[in-house]
Design a protein that fits this description.
Shape: globular
Radius of gyration: 11 Å
Low-confidence stretches: none
Strand order of the largest sheet: 1-2-3
Mean pLDDT: 89
Distance between the termini: 21 Å
Number of strands: 3
Number of helices: 2
Number of domains: 1
Order of helices and strands: EEHEH
Helix content: 25-40%
Amino acid sequence: YTGCLAQGAYYIESDGEAAIIDPLRETAPYLERAGRSDAKIKYVLETHFHADFVSGHVDLARKTGATI
């Protein structure tokens, strides 16, 4: 959660696979987190259109091969 933007994002991992919900624009924290546990980011989910900030969903999917 980023207080200055009032933006929440979630990283969920199970059995070596991860899903990112409403990712922040900066994707490095998700890649680093997945790398620490050798998990593969398989899914990137957007709960709604975010008109108030730029999402990292496209960049994250390109870097990981995840499905949006």
